[in-house]
Amino acid sequence: MRPLKSRLFLLPFLLLGLGVFAAVIPLAGGDALAQDQQPAQASQQTDQQPGQLANGLLDAAATDLGKAKKTYASLQDAAKQATLDDETLVALSGQVDDLNRTTAAISARLKPRTAEIDARLTQLGAAPKEGQPPEAPIVTQERERLNAERSQISAVILDADNLTAETNRLSMQFMEMRRKLFAETLFKRTEISTTTFDDAGAALVDEGVKFSTAVTSWIGFVLKAKLASFLAAVCLSIGAALIFLSGGYRLFRRYYVQDEAVENPPYISRLSVAFWSTLIRTLSLAAFLVTSFFFLSNFNVLRPDIAPILAGVFGFIGLVYFVGRLSNAVFAPFRPHWRLVKLSNKGAHSLTWCLQAMAVVNGLDYVFDRISESMGSPVVVTVAKSFLAALLIGLILIAASFGSPMLAKNGDPDAPGRHWPHGMAIILRVLGILVIFTSFIGYVGLARFMATQMIVTSAVIATMYLGFQLGKAVSKQGVFAETIIGRFLENRLKLREVALDQAGLAAGLATYAVALLTGIPLILLSWGFHIQDLEVFAYRLFTEIKIGNMSISLLGIFVGILLFAGGYLVTRWFQRWLDSNVMARGQVDLGVRNSVRTGIGYLGIALAAIFAISAAGIDLSSLALVASALSVGIGFGLQNIVSNFVSGLILLVERPFKVGDWIVSGTSEGIVKRISVRATEIETFRKQSIIVPNSELINASVGNWTHRNRLARSEIPVSVSYDADPRKVMDILLELVRSIPKVLRNPEPHVEFLRFGPSSLDFEMRFYLSDLSDGMEIRNNLRIEILKRFNEEGISIPYPHQELHIVRDGRRGRQSDVAADALSDFADGPEVEDDMREDSALSAEDKVPEAKRTGRRRGRTAAE
């Protein structure tokens, strides 16, 4: 047993030695790694050295950077080609954006390691100078290793940053190339002559033959080889149509169906039906067309020559349906009571047909253009077709300007309408003549672009305008409660007027957002932007927003808001849990509990704010600079301003009083009207506004009548004569106060017998009110009722009085003593009053002879 005990005794020393050996070995290995400066040798040592993670990260970053440089070289070579179309440029721009994000990720991946190395070098300190004691060799070796690693990482980061800058320049180059290509296509001039149309006619015949052959061969290909795939794609497309169309109809029917039973619908109902019927039905059809094309493409049913034609046909269907839905929703040619503009029935029909005709002409031009591209037809065919389309659209605009669509003055929609306003007719004619003139001088592409924008952009802007008007109408106070959704929320969730008004404001903002997020992408697409451009823009908007040297993102801001909200809720929950489950059970003093709860609240909110700011991408060092600058300003005399600022924050967070409270602070008393970060505005009951600095409200005592609630006690003093019965007086007062409905029964009103006054019995009636603002009215009414009831019961309310007696002659001393004794004992009760009455009677009897003797003396003196 003794050898075993001795071995167990040595076991701690053995473990201590192994721990020291394990701590020394990594330092020695790190020194060997720092001495190796070549990347290849470093990568060979990563399998055995503790610096394997850092060097592995560096090697991976260097490898990724090398691949990125090769990709950049290939993209740079592609940019030098002169014959690039817009689709190719869009694809190259997308590759450049991907490369830019890759190189930025390489740099961001290495920067945390750089920060770790800088922090460790700061801990190690600078190398000792000459004459100073030498440091430990292990410290010198670690510093050299860290410096070498930092140099390598800095070199890679510098290369990545340079490549990022180069990719940015290349992206701008591709954007400039696309802009020039768009301008050249738009302003390209073509000679318009009879020869042009002759050549176009001949080419059009060949194109028709090729198109017929292509469609026939494609149908044969589908029937022979892809029949099952085609049927599956068609079935899935029909299923998607049923989901989008019937599902949308079932879910949103009540919001966009015009009810014929309603004879005079309100304007907000007409706006709602027009906007949602246009938007929901168009989006449902668009979703069906997109899914149909997607299924046909993924089942390999479409050939390369047929796919663009089918895409053009689907686009034509979507455009014509969108314009038709919008015109029917706004003009309502068959339902005048649902019409949004003041048009006659004939005018509504004519404008609807004009808009749909322009949409059909423009859509067919787009489909024929796709057919010409797929069939390889000469450019003259496209020019001739676009010229005819622009000419037709111009003629339709000119013809529409001569109509009389406006509602008659008597308001009858069936009556003949009035002419356009003078300015509107001129605008339509100028636009039509401009399109025709531009086509005739050879700028067919520009005319076609103008005609397309007049149809598509105008329709989208009109839909957005309807959305804005609907959002504005819904946001008005009291309007949302009258809508279908408002009544549903009121009945289902039992929302009150204020909550419904707030919900209406949120619904209005949501309508604005839907109109913007739907309309702006459609306008950008119609003006030449590509879908990939919108994707890149949305990605940068949500992930990369440059403000100076700081990069933030909307997504990060949203995450930061969620983190702050979560931290705030967790803090409040922890405060309640700690107060109710820990400190309350431990019978901790109430003041200590409040201090702990407040401190935890401040700490939790501060931590939540720090995490939220970091998640939002805001550099905390910038806030440190602001704080340092603020501290310098405090040193130069901003103590009072900063004190008021911090006091305002405390008031806003802690809320010892809020807007609408009745407070008393020093000589100021009134209602709080506004609390800002510098001062608080108090309105007195004389309607005087007093601006009180927040620091005074923090450092001084403040009385708040409505801090927790508006419950308050009110008092009415009452005095009666000594002849009254105190019990009867108290019963009468309680009866009167209990008859007031606004007086609370809990706490119960009561009457206090305060004192024996000099000439009365003094009582005080005390009662509680749920709202202290009712106190003045109730006190006035009670005083009137008390006076009336006392008069009925014969109870008098005395007033204080004194009697003064003047005594002459020898009896003055005795009478003066009696009067003095009477006055000194006046407060003792009615017994003293009786004594005073007797003394008064005696003095009155003595006054008569005394007056006679005085008269005789005066007479003798006069005779003498």
Automatic annotation (TrEMBL):
Chain residue ranges for the region called Disordered: 818-864
All residue ranges annotated as the Mechanosensitive ion channel MscS C-terminal domain in the record: 715-797
The organism sits in which domain of life? Bacteria
Q: How does it sit in the membrane?
A: Multi-pass membrane protein
The Gene Ontology CC terms held by the record are: plasma membrane
> Which keywords does this Swiss-Prot/TrEMBL entry list?
Cell membrane, Membrane, Transmembrane, Transmembrane helix
Which cell locations does it reside in?
Cell membrane
Residues annotated as domain Mechanosensitive ion channel MscS = 640-707
Write one Gene Ontology MF term. mechanosensitive monoatomic ion channel activity
| Composition bias, Basic and acidic residues | 838-853
Protein name per its UniProtKB record: Small-conductance mechanosensitive channel
